[in-house]
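Input sequence (143 aa), recorded before submission:
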Amino acid sequence: MTAFANVADVLGLPPKDTAARSPFGLISQIEHGLPVEALERVAHLLAPGNAQFKYRLVPKATFERRKGSRRLSSDEGTRLARLARVWSLALAVWKDADDAREFLFRPHPMIEDRRPIDVIIQSEFGAEMVVDILHGLKYGSAA
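Predicted structure, token format:
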């Protein structure tokens, strides 16, 4: 399965929607607005006991407005897809959702003792730093 298909799965996009599993298909889905349900799904996967976590990705008032349109903005979808991509990689490295969560929510020395989840949400550059750490763990270099 490709990385794009993994991201589509994490986002809860229909498995039969092969277009959404290609790079440009996923970009198109994000640009046209991912469903609000994708935010709910990702928030539940990453922080199952925290009903407020989704508001770190989309502020509460904005989320309430989005429920009417049922679609996220392109920026919100990009942030959500970034988180889904790193979550998918964390699962591939740790092979267990609880262990992946532990990694993402615990301060890490290679990112100045910040929590990976925080730097992922903050920026694409932060997400790439976490991806580098995960690749190091997966392929055997120091992390």
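Checked by second reader. The chain is about 70% helix and 0% strand.
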